[in-house]
């Protein structure tokens, strides 16, 4: 069986991209602590947006979906699930909230991971929630021809309990010794978890929840304010490509984790950059700024078309009607040009194209 020991990581040489990402994330973490100390009201709005996007993003990767309005109602606990997909969504929301609120009291141990998995599948009626798999599972894909191809064969069921114990022990030992940066350890743990594939169902969603848990426990809280799961969903092909590149030779302990480390740290860094930009929109506009000033500052920083929803997410101190009113004024005064109509409405800076506003 594959053995787990992260001590050897301290002697590895990492790519320039990994080293750069680690350094930049450390810098962002320092600014994060300043933002949290100031506690602007806008942070509460960011949390609300991130909860919705995280629940939607992580489930959509697995093909679990509902309508936008139903999703918002489910996340806000204003309705009950109507079908299997919505039962899965409610379970993810609950575990996500639990990690947000209690990450300091959720140690990295198999028993706790099993409990999180139980809660993830609590509303589905599946009997295997909270239990390791009892039958082999394979990670595969279906070719355009209809042929199913096996991409990776995880551990056998009888190997899983011991592997999960070793995995958690190795991670906790490495964290306690402090010789390997947590930003290196966390992607390695997640990669190994996915290769073990300890559950019959829910492995992907659990891996993303565990990513948040491990980051939060080490003080990297950006996932509370900007959805890491959405960032993964938006780059799903790169996510699977990195996994495929990093799991080759895994059973013999000869795999190279670099591709997955680079990918996951790139996602975390992009979320920190997004966090900085959203907070700076509010702070840079000044205490006496109107909604028009805040949205204008955001709009002038865009080099591509954007929707009202994008502006609403980027300006967390504002409500929907305030953003809509500001966008109208920016179109009226010629700062922006409106393209399309209805749900397809987008806005671009007037200095980016020639032509008149299109309704």
Describe the 3D structure.
- The protein has helices spanning 16-38, 42-61, 68-75, 84-102, 110-120, 160-177, 182-196, 203-217, 228-234, 236-246, 258-285, 291-300, 308-314, 320-332; strands at residues 139-142, 148-152, 336-339, 346-349.
- The chain folds into two domains: 6-278, Fic-like fold (Orthogonal Bundle), CATH 1.10.3290.10; 290-349, Arc Repressor Mutant, subunit A (Orthogonal Bundle), CATH 1.10.10.10.
- With 359 residues, it is mainly α.
- It contains 14 helices and four strands.
- β3 (336-339) and β4 form a beta hairpin.
- The model is unreliable at 355-359 (pLDDT under 50).
Could you outline the blueprint of secondary structure elements for this entry?
Blueprint (H helix, E strand, L loop, with lengths): L15 H23 L3 H20 L6 H8 L8 H19 L7 H11 L18 E4 L5 E5 L7 H18 L4 H15 L6 H15 L10 H7 L1 H11 L11 H28 L5 H10 L7 H7 L5 H13 L3 E4 L6 E4 L10
Antiparallel strand pairs: 1-2, 3-4
What integer is the average pLDDT?
Answer: 92
CATH architecture tag of the largest domain? Orthogonal Bundle
* Helix/sheet category: mainly alpha
Tally of domains: 2
For the record, the CATH class of the largest domain is Mainly Alpha
User: What's the total number of strands?
Assistant: 4
Taken in chain order, the helices and strands follow as HHHHHEEHHHHHHHHHEE
Q: How many strands, which pairing sense, and closed or not: the largest β-sheet?
A: 2 strands, antiparallel
Radius of gyration: 22 Å
| CATH topology label of the largest domain | Fic-like fold
Percentage of residues in helical conformation: 55-70%
How is the largest sheet built, in terms of strand order? Answer: 1-2
Tell me the quaternary state. Answer: single chain
Beta-strand residue percentage? under 5%
Low-confidence stretches: 355-359
Euclidean distance between termini CA atoms:
63 Å
Give the CATH superfamily of the largest domain. Fido-like domain
Q: What coarse outline follows from CA principal-axis ratios?
A: globular
What count of helical segments does DSSP give?
A: 14
